[in-house]
């Protein structure tokens, strides 16, 4: 029994150590930002999206969106993460959680607050985000605000907002392409 417990503790330590190393030894770069193919059928279609790489460390995003509802407990957020492998795109378990506002404030506060502040939200650090028409103009995406582990490779991230955990009724959808390289 003690031997099994020691193995479990060792595995937990090894995995958490590898996650810390993954964050410390890689740099994440955005390659693309686009609307999902089903964008026109979503509750909050994204309009006029443009994404430009400014340099090796910065990218700028512009878009327009109209939220018909407050963004809070009434919405579920699902993040689908895929990693490129020799056999094609492979899903990596990630997160489905109620309230994208609270989730993003927990995991990506710098990006969330800056993103909604740039759209003109008066208190982006508080939930819910009020319904309304929003415009984002040449927002410089702060990649240093991403604190999740990424291993070396290419990734595809799909951000979906829905009306319930298992709903096919998509409210909002973005697709993001990224690559992660070892720091030199």
Question: Mind explaining what this structure looks like?
Answer:
It is built from 3 helices and 8 strands; from the N terminus they run αβββββααβββ. The protein has 184 residues and is of the alpha+beta class. The chain has a single domain (2-182), classed as Ganglioside GM2 activator (Ganglioside M2 Activator Protein, Chain: A, Distorted Sandwich), CATH 2.70.220. The strands form 2 sheets. Strands 1-8-7-4-5 form a 5-stranded antiparallel sheet. The longest helix is centred in the first third of the chain and has 24 residues, at 2-25. It is globular, with a radius of gyration of 18 Å.
Describe this structure in a few short sentences.
The protein is built from 3 helices and 8 strands. The protein is of the alpha+beta class. The longest helix is centred in the first third of the chain and has 24 residues, at 2-25.
């Amino acid at each position: 029994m003690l031997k099994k417990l020691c193995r479990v503790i060792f595995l937990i330590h090894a995995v958490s150590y590898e996650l810390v190393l993954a964050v410390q030894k890689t740099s994440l770069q955005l390659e693309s930002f686009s609307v999902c193919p089903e964008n026109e059928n979503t509750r909050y279609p994204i309009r006029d999206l443009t994404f430009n790489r400014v340099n090796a460390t910065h990218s700028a995003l512009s878009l327009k969106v109209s939220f018909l509802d407050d963004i809070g407990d009434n919405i579920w957020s699902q993040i689908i993460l895929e990693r490129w492998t020799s056999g094609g795109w492979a899903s990596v378990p990630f997160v489905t959680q109620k309230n994208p506002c609270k989730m993003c404030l927990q995991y990506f506060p710098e990006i969330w607050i800056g993103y909604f502040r740039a759209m003109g939200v008066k208190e982006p650090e508080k939930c819910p985000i009020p319904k309304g028409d929003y415009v984002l103009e040449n927002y410089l995406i702060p990649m240093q605000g991403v604190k999740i582990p990424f291993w070396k490779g290419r990734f595809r991230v799909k951000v979906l907002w829905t009306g319930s955990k298992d709903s096919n009724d998509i409210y909002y959808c973005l697709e993001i392409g990224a690559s992660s390289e070892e720091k030199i």
